[in-house]
Amino acid sequence: MTTTLDHLSIGTPGLADGWQLFGGILGGTWYEGENSPGFWWGQLKFAAGPKIELMTPTGGPDAAFLERFLAARGAAPHHFNFLVTDIADTLVRIRAFGIEPVGVNLADPAWKEAFLHPRDAHGIVIQVAQQDSPVVSEPPRELPEPGPAARFDLIEHHVGDLDGAVRLFSEVLDGQVDKPGTETAELTWPGGKRLRLVREEGLPLGGALHHIRFSRAAGPFSAADRERTAELANRLGVTVELAG
Q: What pLDDT digit, counting tens, does each position of 203-223 carry?
């Protein structure tokens, strides 16, 4: 069985800011997306690293989970997604670790999923999913032409229990511990996917996403890029570091 950090999902009441930031400035290109009951989702991929997913509610009773999230927090990071080759085995490993998954749905052979509650997953929802094949879909008309290609280099997530978080992401979710330490640790997955965990006490639910980092292979980000990134990221409830 293999597990990989596939994407970071951001909940937002509107999509324009996300398209401009992750597509127009950071060079993300369309990967897949579609309507699901109660919400629409779409993903952008980068030169390396995990993908970014944007989710927005579309109404009806199935939208309640996302509408509650947005009412409480506004636009903000919603979950980490890990794609697995055998979700049944993953569920066994999660339960053996002492966590009871929620929202388990194995009925659709094309997409089987389960979730870890933030209380059990160090402050953020974790989705594990087994996908039969990517969704074939056209990019939204509102998606701008991508800017210069960028790498999604890093997700930094702060946690109260560093040892427990390292064990979850390595023993259950197959991250390779690259830089262990007493105050910080880094884990990697194939394709340039990197998660840095940093010890910080007193966080709600025991953890919080701190920032994400992007870099360009060809030339630095301009002052205008940095100013516009800060503005859009603030409206999306996420801190974005531009390396270099």
A: 999 999 999 999 998 889 999
Provide the 3-class DSSP secondary structure of residue 25. Answer: helix
Provide the whole-model pTM. 0.97
Using CA atoms, how far apart are residues 169 and 155, in angstroms rounded to an integer? 13
Q: Do the strands 207-216 and 240-242 form a parallel or antiparallel pair, or are they unpaired?
A: parallel
Please tell me the total number of residues recorded for the chain in this structure.
244
User: How many whole angstroms separate alpha carbon 154 and alpha carbon 160?
Assistant: 19
Domains and CATH numbers, the chain: 3-131 (3.10.180.10), 150-242 (3.10.180.10)
Per the CB < 8 A criterion, the answer to whether 51 and 83 are in contact is no
For residues 51 and 7, the answer to whether their CB atoms sit within 8 Å is yes
Q: Which two tokens stand for residue 8?
A: 């970071």
Is the dihedral angle over the CA atoms 188, 15, 228, 157 positive or is it negative? negative
pLDDT in tens, 224-240: 999 999 999 999 999 99
CA Rg, the chain, in Å? Answer: 17
